[in-house]
Design a protein that fits this description.
single chain, 492 residues, mainly beta, 4-stranded mixed β-sheet, 1 helix
Length: 492
């Protein structure tokens, strides 16, 4: 990730005006007046985000006055579009997959201030894209997407597309241009590798603010960095006013998680421990951000990375350790270090503690687990240089019943590989349970089940596959122990 990524520091929507400025947690500037009284904008500090199903995200906001002073915003009302989940206070809990917009609204001295930020909820892919979500304006330049693959396969290249190029378009190198206000999704595909090889980047394009502010956006260069423990990288920043002219500014640099990486007053970052942190540069209440990933010397990969298990069912997971080449970031398989442990995190709330795992990686789903819930299984070694591996597990409703006498195989005549749209309707599966002479067996019932309910579900009674969200799933077509599979890819 060597290209410059300009990050606006706040996303602002004032009464009668829309503007963009995106911010993360920062130290409040010293107030020279009463910000809560003189506020002209609301800023979502959490910014543009992409999270996984089953996780949560806490949103916070600050008030900004015309001099660039800030103070915490209280009493904010939060909502999300496209029925993507629910808010309890500022805590967002996903209720599905896809992209949408989070909106925060607060009333200050009779003025209603509103802020928005994009959010994406997707299953993890086999690679990552930085930034994973974008909020930007139409006159602030392009943003390059940087793809990062840390795996054992070989990526033959990346392809890019936008589901609404009139809002934001993307070229063959991953440079995103912002053409009009609105929302869209950029899809990045990693060619040549198997699994979930698509990443979806939600984009929100807004106009510039009409309120008077000394600084409206901050650009941090580079957009992000991947370094190993003990290594350093230097960041720089520039501030711009509403005329898009650079403003001479002094920046306050902060690492949101100094246990991962520290930063000094000049923007020099030092990697401390494995993990990810956000680096921010703040001036006049406006913050720009960049992402720092501190990479492991050794990584653990769990297979499969995503799986669905029916209540009372089991699934065997395996783990492999890899040494990470510091120069090429290629992975080389090594013997698993001693002390491998398997874990399914618990919350203490029975409805969410849906599975357990043995010392050998065999996951057992609880008989009372609710279909659609999710958790993770983790393989870890106690070492500050070894990254844990994890896989997402979801509760499915797979029940193949008992094998009917005479059934030897399942024939799917509607195709064993389907590409369907997330906004399309159900797709009917045509299948037969046959005997050894290719004759249909009378009374043999065909059942369907999906290994990824976040991608597609099934209606066994009608024999249909119902798209839910983008990704790849395996639908099992079965009669008791006799089964075959259909590979289903759902796109936006």
């Amino acid at each position: 990730m060597k290209k410059t990524l300009t990050i606006l520091s706040l996303l602002l929507l004032t009464a009668g005006a829309t503007s963009l400025l995106h911010s993360c947690k920062k130290k409040s500037d010293s107030n020279t007046n009463n910000v809560s009284t003189d506020a002209v904008a609301l800023s979502i500090q959490t910014g543009a985000r992409t999270i996984e199903p089953g996780s949560t995200m806490t949103y916070t906001a600050v008030l900004v006055d015309s001099k660039g002073n800030t103070s915490a915003a209280t009493g904010v009302t939060w909502s999300v579009s496209n029925s993507l989940g629910t808010f309890a206070g500022g805590v967002f809990t996903p209720g599905g997959t896809g992209s949408g917009t989070v909106t925060g609204t607060v009333t200050v001295n009779g003025k209603t201030l509103t802020a928005q930020a994009p959010i994406g909820i997707y299953l993890p892919a086999v690679f990552a894209v930085v930034p994973s979500a974008i909020v930007w304006s139409t006159n602030a330049g392009t943003i390059p997407l940087e793809s990062v693959y840390l795996g054992t396969g070989t990526v033959s290249g990346y392809t890019y597309s936008s589901n609404n190029a009139s809002i934001a378009s993307v070229d063959g190198s991953g440079n995103v241009s912002f053409n009009a206000t609105g929302e869209c999704i950029i899809t990045v595909t990693a060619n040549g590798i198997t699994g979930n090889n698509k990443v979806y980047v939600p984009v929100l394009v807004v106009g510039m603010p009409t309120v008077t502010l000394p600084v409206v956006r901050v650009k941090v260069n580079p957009a992000g960095a991947e370094i190993f423990r003990g290594e350093t990288v230097s960041f720089s920043a520039k501030a711009y006013n509403s005329s898009n002219s650079e403003v001479n500014s002094t920046f306050t640099w902060v690492s949101q998680d100094p246990s991962v990486a520290t930063i000094d007053a000049t923007g020099k970052v030092t990697a401390v421990n494995l993990g990810k942190t956000i680096i921010t540069a703040t001036t006049n209440g406006i913050t720009g951000q960049a992402e720092v990933d501190v990479l492991p010397d050794t990584a653990i990969m769990v297979t499969p990375i995503v799986a669905s298990i029916s209540p009372n069912g089991t699934k065997q997971f395996t783990a492999q350790a890899y040494a990470v080449n510091h120069s090429t970031k290629a992975l080389n398989a090594i013997t698993m270090p001693a002390g491998l442990k398997w874990e399914v995190p618990t919350t203490g709330v029975p409805v969410f503690d849906i599975a357990s795992v043995s010392t050998t990686g065999l996951v057992t789903m609880n008989s009372s687990a609710t279909v659609g819930l999710a958790t993770v299984v983790i393989a870890t070694v106690s070492s500050h240089t070894i990254a844990e591996g994890s896989a997402l597990i979801m509760v499915s409703d797979c029940n193949c019943g008992t094998t009917t006498a005479g059934v030897t195989h399942i024939k799917v005549t509607s195709g064993t590989s389907l590409n369907i749209s997330a906004i399309g309707g159900p797709v009917t599966v045509t299948a037969q349970a046959l005997d050894a002479t290719e004759t249909p067996v009378p009374g043999a019932t065909i059942s369907l089940c999906s290994d990824s309910p976040a991608v597609c579900t099934v209606d066994a009674s009608s024999g249909t596959i119902i798209p839910v969200g983008p990704g790849t799933a395996t639908v099992t077509v079965c009669n008791g122990g006799v089964q075959t599979t259909i590979s289903v890819t759902v796109t936006l």
